[in-house]
Write a structure and sequence with these properties.
It is built from 13 helices and no strands. By secondary structure, the chain is mainly α. It comes from Pseudomarimonas arenosa.
Length: about 270
């Protein structure tokens, strides 16, 4: 399985993307399920990001985890974890790390400039989950490599986590609503689209909440959980105030957005 990491991850990504698009088309919450240029630009970002990472950083997470295991590095091997407990513990710790990474990208202005590209999407659908600036993806990978070495994550755990990361992002950004009772139950364990949609509000007190990617417990544990937006989900504003022009949603504009200044101060009551 590890030998076929690339095709496996791509196949699962495309399968989940197709499923989410079908669900959005059949049961849309806000949109009409139709394809748009905005969505193509969003998917273009993940293509560019993948190419940049391949060119700049030849060491990828799973191959790095194999090297780490051969060297015996990390906390988990040091305390004697092995087998399935080792894999599960590593996945949980990787998820915790990406929670704090996400908070850091909101807290530091120069990192927010990169992450802002994700939040400036004026709609919320499964392609938003692929809309990250290539430099953010590159920095995220470097952080992930460091965490893998520190905790001694096995290659299988890293592969599972990488698959969950990409497919989970497509799910948590999908434009459909789970049955309300099921959503209330599920979000005690996992981040749901309804829970994450709050995070894409332009209101700072809502944007700076619900940072989790997979496990919802981190937001509850660290005080960043917000149950629902002030406005109904189907009516709430999505995106950032100063990046709503159609030209700002073009692929070339998204790539250059971190270098641009908003028309007003970037961090007041609203994000910019």
């Amino acid at each position: 399985m590890l030998a076929h990491e690339g095709p496996l991850r791509l196949g699962i990504f495309l399968a989940v993307l197709g499923l989410m698009l079908l669900l959005q088309w059949g049961f849309p919450l806000r949109g009409d399920g139709r394809w748009s240029r905005r969505q193509l630009n969003n998917l273009g970002m993940v293509v560019v990001g993948t190419l940049v990472i391949r060119l700049v950083l030849p060491v990828l997470a799973v191959s790095w985890a194999l090297d780490v295991s051969e060297q015996g590095w990390g906390l988990l091997p040091a305390i004697g974890l092995d087998g399935l407990p080792h894999v599960l513990a590593a996945i949980v710790l990787l998820d915790l790390a990406i929670y704090w990474q996400h908070r850091l990208f909101h807290h530091l202005p120069w990192l927010w400039r990169l992450h802002r590209v994700h939040h400036s999407d004026t709609a919320f659908d499964t392609t938003t989950g692929a809309r990250f600036h290539p430099l953010e993806l590159l920095l995220s990978l470097l952080i992930k490599l460091a965490v893998i070495a520190m905790i001694g994550a096995p290659a299988l755990a890293v592969l599972v986590f990488e698959v969950l990361l990409s497919s989970g992002a497509l799910f948590t950004h999908a434009d459909f609503a789970l049955p309300r009772r099921f959503d209330r139950w599920l979000r005690w364990l996992l981040v749901t689209p309804s829970m994450h949609r709050v995070h894409h509000s332009p209101q700072r007190h809502e944007t700076d909440s619900n940072f989790g990617f997979h496990l919802s417990c981190w937001d509850r544990l660290f005080g960043s959980y917000r149950d629902s937006p002030q406005r109904p989900e189907a009516e709430m504003t999505i995106g950032l105030e100063h990046w709503r022009d159609a030209n700002a949603q073009r692929l070339i504009a998204l790539l250059g957005q971190p270098l641009q200044e908003p028309a007003a101060p970037a961090r007041n009551d609203d994000h910019a």
